[in-house]
Amino acid sequence: MVIFDFDGTIADSQEHVIAEYNRIAPRFRVKPIDPAELPRLRALSGPVAMKEHGVTFWKLPLIVSTMRRALRDHAAGLEPHRGVADALRALAASGCRLGILSTNSKENIDSFLRRHELAMFEVVAGGASMFGKARTLRRLSRELRLDPARTFYVGDEIRDVEAAAKAGMRSIAVAWGYADRGALARSQPTHLADDPGDLIRFVHV
């Protein structure tokens, strides 16, 4: 089975996510994201970037919950990354089981999948904790009777690679999302995809 992160991996949502974060930043007394700083921030781990912006672990769940609700307003304008939809359809056509695990809400994800005719996922697990994905991956593994060693988790951040490793799964880091390619490479994913077409090749190795 191949389980995907959503924002940044399937959906090209970075601009919307940053806009909403910056909109609510004053409410939570955290530092906004300066777009000029993005290249540097993309090379940092999540905890380091959070510390720079004053996002404490007790504030994080409140911010994420607020962001999920706010992102519903951007749903109609959200598009898949170029080539990702074709790669997903090719994987499904080959008989591969597909799933999604994301911090975004299941409602937002399901709406996106229907709009883009991508409703081929066996499971959509939304609302995951930002740093609790490994626990959810292990639960999905039990519920779906997966062999973790033959299961991939695909994501665009260092924490996605780390979650897969903790769950005993293989990982595919994608270079078209949030994190810098070099930072992803240093996190030692099983594979590093530069193009959506790489997903098909890696899964069927």
Report helical residue fraction. 40-55%
Regions with pLDDT < 50 over 5+ consecutive residues? none
The coarse silhouette is globular
Query: CATH H-level name of the largest domain... which superfamily?
Result: HAD superfamily/HAD-like
How many domains, as an integer? Answer: 2
Which structural class matches the secondary elements? alpha/beta
The CATH first-level class of the largest domain comes to Alpha Beta
Strand order of the biggest β-sheet: 3-2-1-4-5-6
Number of strands: 6
Strand content: 5-15%
The CATH architecture of the largest domain is 3-Layer(aba) Sandwich
Task: State the major sheet.
Answer: 6 strands, parallel
Computed CA radius of gyration, to the nearest angstrom: 16 Å
CATH topology of the largest domain: Rossmann fold
Let me know the average pLDDT. Answer: 91
How many angstroms separate the termini? 14 Å
Number of helical stretches of at least 4 residues: 10
Write a structural description.
The protein has two domains: 2-11 and 80-203, HAD superfamily/HAD-like (Rossmann fold); 14-76. It contains ten helices and six strands, in the order E-H-H-H-H-H-E-H-E-H-E-H-E-H-E-H. The protein has helices at 14-28, 38-41, 46-52, 60-71, 84-93, 106-115, 133-143, 158-166, 181-186, 197-203, and strands at residues 2-4, 98-101, 123-125, 152-155, 170-174, 191-193. The protein has a six-stranded parallel sheet with strand order 3-2-1-4-5-6, with helices on both faces. Strand 2, helix 6 and strand 3 (123-125) form a beta-alpha-beta unit. The longest helix has 15 residues, at 14-28. The protein is globular. The two termini are 14 Å apart.
